[in-house]
Amino acid sequence: MLASLFAVLAPVFIVAGIGYAWARSGIDYPTEFIARIVMTVGTPALVLSTLSRTKLDQSAFTSMALACVLCMAGMALAGVIVSRLCGRDWRVLLPAFMYPNTGNMGLPVSLYAFGEHGLALAVAFFLTLSIFQFTLGIVLSGNASSVKAMLRNPIVISLAGAMPIIFFNLELPRWLANTADLLGGMTIPLMLLTLGVSLASIRLHHVGSGMLLGGLRIVLGGAVGWGVGALLGLEHMEKAVLMVQSSMPVAVFNYLLAVRANRSPEQVANLVMCSTVLSFVWLPVVLAWWL
């Protein structure tokens, strides 16, 4: 069991650690360029290649999408309750609780733990959450933009491109499938490297409260994921991926939006870093449950 867990988590931690060490060494890392290429090219390609290669049926996709929406609703309620109890601004805690790091961490962990089918299910969760994060999440963070700009978001476009593949059981032309595989293959490593670089740039204050709230985020996320999976009667693999994705730490993107809106970025940075550190302990527990 320990060997299986190590095989799943070691690539994630090692590649993120390389990014962290790279940033701490002072060597330049073009974060903005890498983030843009991953979001505009790599992620849409990964979505197309994964969903076309694994043939995720529409019922499984719909189930994961519905489960994701219910998990977000449950964590939104948890965020409001915790913010009231702690006397914090709900506009700070709500996005942090609703939007975990299902991309940079969730996709690699799901791939290494559950294989290609697990990755396809994780992509369905990631796509659904991203739609809300890049629309409602931007509004909540105080970075509201036009509807036209939101519709031009590459995640939204990749979802639109994936729908015919899923619901009409289409196959990509071989040249397009090979291109999507090639471009999608760079996405997960670059996501993990950028995660490490981003964590290295965050400075912590009030670590105690960050550990408490970050711990609540990942544990409550796992509990909500388990409860939603049981409520919907999902299959074993779907439940496992759902709980793993729901257990992810606070996404770095929440910190970037908080900086842009100047809405307590230090608090959000604490939540990102502390929940990520705690996930190194929590994720092995979750994976041991399912593996």
Topology:
Elements: H1 2-24, H2 31-54, H3 58-86, H4 90-98, H5 106-140, H6 147-151, H7 154-167, H8 174-184, H9 187-201, H10 207-232, H11 236-246, H12 252-261, H13 265-290
Question: What key attributes describe this structure?
Answer:
mainly alpha; 13 helices; Na+/H+ antiporter like fold
Protein model, in words:
With 291 residues, the protein is an all-alpha fold. The chain is built from 13 helices and no strands. The protein has a single domain, classed as Na+/H+ antiporter like fold (Up-down Bundle). The chain has helices at residues 2-24, 31-54, 58-86, 90-98, 106-140, 147-151, 154-167, 174-184, 187-201, 207-232, 236-246, 252-261, 265-290. Helix 1 (2-24) packs across helix 5 (106-140), helix 10 (207-232) packs antiparallel against helix 11 (236-246) and helix 10 (207-232) crosses helix 13 (265-290). The chain is globular and about 55 Å long.
CATH class: Mainly Alpha
Total domains, how many? 1
- Rg calc: 18 Å
Sequence stretches where pLDDT stays below 50 over 5 or more residues: none
CATH architecture: Up-down Bundle
Measured as a percent range, the helix fraction is over 70%
The CATH topology turns out to be Na+/H+ antiporter like fold
- Total of helices: 13
Main β-sheet: number of strands, strand sense, barrel status? none
Strand percentage = under 5%
Arithmetic mean pLDDT: 84
How many strands in all? 0
Q: Assign an overall shape.
A: globular
Would you summarize the structure shown here?
This protein is mainly α and 291 residues long.
